[in-house]
Amino acid sequence: MSNIIEISDFSLPNLDVFARLTETQLRNRLEPEIGIFIAESTKVIGLALDAGCEPISLLMERKYIAGQAHGIITRCGDIPVYTADSNLLAGLTGFQLTRGVLCAMRRPHLPSVEEACAGASRVAVLEGIADSTNVGAIFRSAAALGIDTVLLTPSCCDPLCRRAVRVSMGTIFQVPWARIGSESSQWPQQGMKSLRKLGFKTVAMALNDNAVSIDDPQLMAEEKLAIVLGSEGNGLAPCTIADCDYTACIPMSHNVDSLNVAAASAVAFWQLRVR
To answer: Across the beta sheet with 3-6, what order do the strands follow?
Structure first.
């Protein structure tokens, strides 16, 4: 049975997760290995539930209770459903709930690299990509374009931060992902060893005099390939490029030197997909 709670007092501690906690505080709200994340929109919440994520509480405009969120509320059982009209909620959260519904959820169990890569033939490795919009967009491209797993180095942004989840349109819950290296010192050397042990060849996406074109036949023919992408400003570290089996680039026109990392990932994923 639904537990509908009308909001009148913004100081309720149970509303902290939606309005007053930083992303870091959310990750450590419960036990550090569990934590909390926020999913927005009925579509994204539904995908998170499909993936087995456990809901804690919902926040939504009153009009959605019997409308588009009815199915989500039913799936979530008797958790608290905090509600008010849109103006009141804007005062609480500091912004309009453009998607109408928020859900606080427990963070899912994070698999090991070996578990996440089981059966994978195409893997994306994100090195030091701190921009949450780029991370979310890369996950969306990975899901759409045949990437089996996404691996993130220790300095990457959290894929379960609110913006990354929103930009990914929930695909973060559809593509297996894991952290490769629990400390910066373990990447790239130990991380590359793990990938090779799992049978992957590695390709660094980088502007380099030795880079082959992304449509190089030998590169495209690799049975198991890890596509390594770097941050927007600095790109991949030289030691990472040196450690990879290949370096590849996307041919450019009109003297454009490179694409945004999210756009480049989509091109790379499509070109290097398993055929």
So the answer is: 3-6, 80-84, 55-61, 101-106, 36-40
